[in-house]
Amino acid sequence: MDTNVQKRRENKKSLRVKVISLGNAEVGKSCIIKRYCEKRFVPKYLATIGIDYGVTKVQVRDREIKVNIFDMAGHPFFYEVRNEFYKDSQGVILVYDVGLRESFDALDSWLAEMKQEMGSQANMESIVFVVCANKVDLTKRRVVDESEGRLWAESRGFHYFETSAQSGEGISEMFQAFFSAITDMCENGGKRPTPEVSVGFTKEQADTIRRIRNSKDSWDMLGVKPGATREEVNKAYRKLAVLLHPDKCVAPGSEDAFKAVNEVTQ
Ligand code: GTP
Ligand code: MG
């Protein structure tokens, strides 16, 4: 075959992508990447200083993918270094530690930081997100359960995996699904394909269930100011009842949330 034709075909099949890792300091971002790329685990904590950069090649179907991995430091101190690296990413690995609730709660602010830094470039529909509920090997200290993590991720159209960089659980499955979704997206004209199985509930429903679960008192549960009038409480209740009624809402945890709202308004 003509070598130029052959080269063109090969080029068509090869793909270069950029992925970044995000999440609080010490949740295990670098260890997840190390486990995948180097098949090893380092128990000692070595904080990433600014950014770690690495390249790896993976095969997805008939394509060779060259992956540029930018492993971000989670510490707030490195914000100035990190913010340069958000743009032009096709994939984001969002990591939290299942034993630290604040690292899970921080996922929203990581997304917000990313959106802010990308500015007008922020087209979240052209990025594949995978959420890693990490350190699942430490079962005794787990505080964020699978349903809560999965709900947060899937209600946003993100992939969800339970992982342990220590044991290796979920790591290769996560990366395989991640790279395959990025390849699908690139083949789909840069738009994230809608998941084959729709989750069947909305982000608003998922976020409301999460807020109710974590509410500190009845006012907080209803989403009203302390001392709100009966009328305001009734209004909030009606809105929640429509949103979470078990006949209308199939999100995991909706029944408990609906029950809890009914109890505080009685
Ligand atoms: P920054 O670079 O500071 O943002 O942290 P990071 O998110 O990259 O964390 P890193 O990968 O350095 O891991 C932090 C600590 O958690 C280290 O002591 C790791 O050995 C430990 N660790 C990471 N993943 C796991 C895991 O799955 N299980 C257990 N038991 N420990 C883990
Ligand atoms: Mg790190």
From TrEMBL:
Which GO molecular function, any one, fits this protein according to its record?
A: GTP binding
Q: Provide GO CC annotations from the record.
A: nucleus
Give residue ranges for domain J. Answer: 217-266
Transmembrane segments annotated in the record for this chain: none
Primary location recorded for the protein, binned into one broad class: nucleus
Which Pfam family, giving just one, matches this sequence?
DnaJ
Q: CDD domains, alphabetically?
A: DnaJ (cd06257), RJL (cd04119)
PROSITE patterns found in the cross-reference section: DNAJ_2, RAB, RAS
Going by the UniProt record, its keywords in alphabetical order are: GTP-binding, Nucleotide-binding, Nucleus
* Compartment list: Nucleus
- On the tree of life, the source organism's domain of life is Eukaryota
Which family is this sequence assigned to?
Belongs to the small GTPase superfamily. Rab family.
Q: What is this protein called?
A: J domain-containing protein
- Gene source species: Denticeps clupeoides
- Lineage of producing organism: Eukaryota, Metazoa, Chordata, Craniata, Vertebrata
